[in-house]
């Protein structure tokens, strides 16, 4: 894991097209802004984990498909 130190209003750039900026720091909370292309999915980790679990459940569900028409 790469660990960087940033101050308020400082940024890091990923892959030339994603910029992450520290917007505010209050106590133990940090507000960040992310500027990225629309096709890049960005989620808080807890939301990403939930989405992944739901996708896994959906992929393993028994689905009956009637192909007769």
Number of helices: 1
- Structural class based on helices, strands and sheet pairing: alpha+beta
Secondary-structure element pattern, one letter each: EEEH
Oligomer: single chain
Main sheet specs:
3 strands, antiparallel
Please report the distance between the alpha carbons of the first and last residues. 54 Å
List the uncertain runs: none
Overall body shape: elongated
Mean pLDDT, to the nearest integer, reads: 93
Notes on the protein architecture:
This protein is α+β, with helices and mostly antiparallel strands and 69 residues long. It has one domain. 23% of the residues lie in helices and 29% in strands. It has one helix spanning 45-60, and strands spanning 11-14, 18-26, 29-35. The protein has a three-stranded antiparallel beta sheet, with no helix packed on it. Strand 2 (18-26) and strand 3 form a beta hairpin. It is elongated. The chain starts with 10 loop residues before the first strand and ends in a 9-residue tail after the last helix. The model has no long low-confidence stretch (mean pLDDT 93).
């Amino acid at each position: 894991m790469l660990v960087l130190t940033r101050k308020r209003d400082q940024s890091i750039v990923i892959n030339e097209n994603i910029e992450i900026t520290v917007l505010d720091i209050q106590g133990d909370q940090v507000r960040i802004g992310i500027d990225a292309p629309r096709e890049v999915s960005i989620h808080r980790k807890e939301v990403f984990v939930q989405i992944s679990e739901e996708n896994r459940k959906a992929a393993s569900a028994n689905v009956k498909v009637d192909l007769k028409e």
